[in-house]
């Protein structure tokens, strides 16, 4: 297991995080948020509520304006853009709504994409095969171009990729929106159980309140405008 | 990793990439081809005549004298006296000389009246002498030695009887029909105007004009037969020009001045090297224009490619977001696009060189036989490296535009691309 299994260090900690676009009122204001290892957070909000911006901040794409984001003990504010990119490669997994894979690479190459940018992932290829198998992707699909897969299969490959580096954080941006109900539930279970095995904390964004029950905590983007403390 | 990505990405878009590479290949092959022909033309042009120290003719510009005496283009302003030529020949510095008498033609090919010294002393290229492919040098009055192109184009063999025409057009109304010449020798190809010439003895020139009143046809019934002509005095009175080889190169300028100040008649003595260089400078303007146009074709092609890339960027936004999500710095996006362009450019260069070499090899025979052009198959010159580096550099500079836009977009839109 990875270094962030140390339960004393929170997987994610936000301290007085405020973000605003130039010449606008703050989009959100989070005075304090702390997630321990394996505690999952559901972020709920309509479009335009700042979800996307928050995810870009958490993933280290945007720099922090005010406050701090600490991922597995590593403060983001102190890091340069390049260092944040590296932190994202090794400590944050990302799963999008859909179209998670580079169409012209094979399934296996897609999963291993992370290892090109992360600091050394031990036995990356072995781990990739293990994860693909666990996520129910038959071996004959591994060398197939990613665009040959169904949406459900693609989303599972995306989880394998996001978990390859055993990240502290898995950011999922409405990954079930393209799936039907049956697939949605099996997807959620698969994702959360794999995340738990890796000791990864999941941050899940959705406008579907039905998924709320899978998570330990929830955060309503609407409340964040007022700076309400969620937990 | 980036390389693998770039390769896979290009392969994924192979249709577009193939068209891009083809268009770039054509323009690069054009550039290299024109540059190559420029080199070849220059070397073949400046090696048309070598070893000759001075060319002497009637007073005229040096270009005119060079053009008619060496390139068989245009006409002499005047003839010069045979007598004076004999005097010059005895100049202590003169090692050898070749007299030339022009003014007649055979089916469009110029007739050169000269003597056996022409075959002994005339040199071209790297001081190569003329060689006979078949037969021998003329010995009799009514014999001719023809250039390789003349032989090939007109299908002449040894022993062929040819009729000369007065004047230099390909269609002439005054033929020297009564006095045919026999082809006794065919010269090996030289890649110079010699290939397109018919050489006959000076006496032959005299003989076919016997009985002509100054500049006009003989009156009917006054014609002189071949037999009669042979018993007459065939020593020429005038010639058109002559070439001189000197004993010491150092003396060239002195002899040139002496000839230019010759008391007997107005002469012009030119240094063929200097005149060739001057002529080449005039011609090279055209070539530089050609090269410039080719360069513009390349720029246009590259701009087209960059436009295609720009149009395709939106489709690739998702791809870039995925790369960012797995931890690729924004610079990766920039590098990926530049690398793809670089790969396409390198592929095009390789294809262009292949196409060019294959083309030169394929058309080698045709060029040599039809146009008398001897073009080397190897298109590589010293400056080729620089030309190709310039193409690559230009590709990267122009490619920086879409690469930078993709980079900026990757920075701004981050992970969550909504399509």
Automatic annotation (TrEMBL), chain A:
Molecular-function GO terms, alphabetical: ATP binding; ATP hydrolysis activity; transmembrane transporter activity
Judging by the UniProt lineage, the source's domain of life is Bacteria
Its keywords, alphabetically, are: ATP-binding, Nucleotide-binding, Transport
**Gene Ontology cellular component annotations, sorted alphabetically:** plasma membrane
Please provide an example of a Pfam family that matches this protein in its UniProt record: ABC_tran
User: In this protein, which residues make up the domain named ABC transporter?
Assistant: 12-230
InterPro entries attached here? AAA+_ATPase, ABC_transporter-like_ATP-bd, ABC_transporter-like_CS, ABC_transpr_LolD-like, MacB-like_ATP-bd, P-loop_NTPase
Entry's SUPFAM superfamilies?
A: P-loop containing nucleoside triphosphate hydrolases
What's the protein name?
ABC transporter ATP-binding protein
> Which organism encodes this protein?
Rheinheimera tangshanensis
From TrEMBL, chain B:
Q: Which domain of life is it from?
A: Bacteria
Got a GO cellular component term for this one?
Answer: plasma membrane
Where is this chain primarily localised? membrane
* Cellular localization per UniProt: Cell membrane
Describe its membrane topology: Multi-pass membrane protein
Q: Which InterPro entries match?
A: ABC-4/HrtB_transporter (IPR051125), ABC3_permease_C (IPR003838), MacB_PCD (IPR025857)
Per the database record, which ranges form the MacB-like periplasmic core domain? 18-206
Q: Which UniProt keywords apply?
A: Cell membrane, Membrane, Transmembrane, Transmembrane helix
Transmembrane ranges, per UniProt, are 289-313, 333-363, 383-407
Domain ABC3 transporter permease C-terminal, first and last residues per copy: 292-410
The protein's matches in PANTHER family, at most eight in alphabetical order, are given as: ABC TRANSPORTER PERMEASE, ABC TRANSPORTER, MEMBRANE PROTEIN
Write down what this protein is called: FtsX-like permease family protein
């Amino acid at each position: 297991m990875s270094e962030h299994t140390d339960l004393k260090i929170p997987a994610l900690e936000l301290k007085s995080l405020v973000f605003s676009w130039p010449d606008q009122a703050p989009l959100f204001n989070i005075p304090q948020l702390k997630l321990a290892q394996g505690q999952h957070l559901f972020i709920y909000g309509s479009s335009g509520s700042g979800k996307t911006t928050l995810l870009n901040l958490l993933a280290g794409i945007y720099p922090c304006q005010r406050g701090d984001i600490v991922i597995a003990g590593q403060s983001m504010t102190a890091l340069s853009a390049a260092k944040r990119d590296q932190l994202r490669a090794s400590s944050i997994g990302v799963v999008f709504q859909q179209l998670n894979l580079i169409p012209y690479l094979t399934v296996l190459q897609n999963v291993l994409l992370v290892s090109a940018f992360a600091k050394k992932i031990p036995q990356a290829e072995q781990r990739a095969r293990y994860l693909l198998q666990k996520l129910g992707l038959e071996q004959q699909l591994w060398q197939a171009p990613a665009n040959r897969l169904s949406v459900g299969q693609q989303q599972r490959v995306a989880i394998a990729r996001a978990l390859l580096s055993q990240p502290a954080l898995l950011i999922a941006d409405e990954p079930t929106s393209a799936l039907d109900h049956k697939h949605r539930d099996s997807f959620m279970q698969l994702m959360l159980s794999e995340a738990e095995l890796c000791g990864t904390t999941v941050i899940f964004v959705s406008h579907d309140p039905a998924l709320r029950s899978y998570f330990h905590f929830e955060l309503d983007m609407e409340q964040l405008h007022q700076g309400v403390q969620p937990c | 990793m980036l390389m693998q990505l770039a390769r896979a990405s290009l392969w994924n878009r192979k249709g577009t990439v193939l068209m891009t590479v083809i268009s770039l290949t054509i323009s690069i092959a054009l550039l290299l081809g024109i540059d190559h022909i420029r080199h070849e033309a220059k070397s073949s042009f400046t090696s048309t005549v070598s070893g000759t120290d001075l060319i002497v003719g009637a007073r005229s510009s040096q270009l005119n004298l060079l053009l008619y005496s060496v390139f068989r283009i245009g006409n002499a302003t005047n003839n010069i006296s045979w007598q004076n030529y004999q005097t010059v020949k005895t100049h202590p510095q003169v090692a050898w000389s070749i007299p030339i008498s022009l003014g007649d033609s055979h089916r469009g090919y110029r007739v050169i009246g000269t003597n056996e010294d022409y075959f002994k002393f005339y040199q071209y290229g790297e001081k190569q002498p003329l060689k006979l492919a078949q037969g021998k040098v003329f010995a009799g009055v009514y014999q001719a030695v023809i250039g390789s192109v003349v032989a090939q184009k007109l299908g002449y063999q040894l022993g062929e009887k040819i009729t000369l025409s007065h004047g230099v057009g390909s269609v002439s109304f005054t033929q020297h029909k009564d006095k045919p010449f026999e082809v006794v020798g065919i010269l090996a190809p030289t890649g110079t105007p010699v290939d397109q010439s018919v050489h006959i003895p000076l006496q032959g020139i005299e003989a076919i004009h016997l009985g002509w009143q100054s500049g006009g046809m003989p009156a009917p019934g006054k014609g002189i037969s071949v037999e009669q002509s042979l018993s007459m005095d065939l020593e020429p009175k005038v010639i058109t020009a002559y070439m001189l080889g000197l004993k010491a190169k150092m003396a060239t300028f002195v002899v040139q001045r002496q000839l230019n100040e010759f008391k007997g008649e107005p002469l012009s003595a030119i240094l063929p090297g200097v005149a060739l260089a001057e002529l080449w400078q005039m011609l090279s303007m055209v070539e530089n224009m050609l090269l410039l146009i080719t360069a513009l074709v390349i720029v246009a092609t590259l701009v087209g490619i960059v436009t295609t890339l720009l149009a395709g960027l939106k489709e690739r936004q998702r791809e870039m977001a995925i790369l960012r999500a797995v931890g690729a710095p924004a610079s990766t996006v920039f590098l990926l696009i530049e690398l793809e362009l670089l790969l396409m450019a390198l592929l095009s260069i390789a294809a262009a060189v292949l196409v060019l070499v294959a083309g030169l090899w394929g058309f080698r025979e045709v060029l040599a036989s039809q146009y008398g052009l001897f073009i080397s198959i190897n298109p590589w010159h010293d400056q080729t490296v620089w030309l190709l580096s310039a193409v690559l550099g230009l590709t990267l500079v122009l490619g920086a535009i879409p690469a930078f836009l993709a980079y900026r977009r990757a920075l701004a839109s981050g992970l969550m691309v909504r399509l």
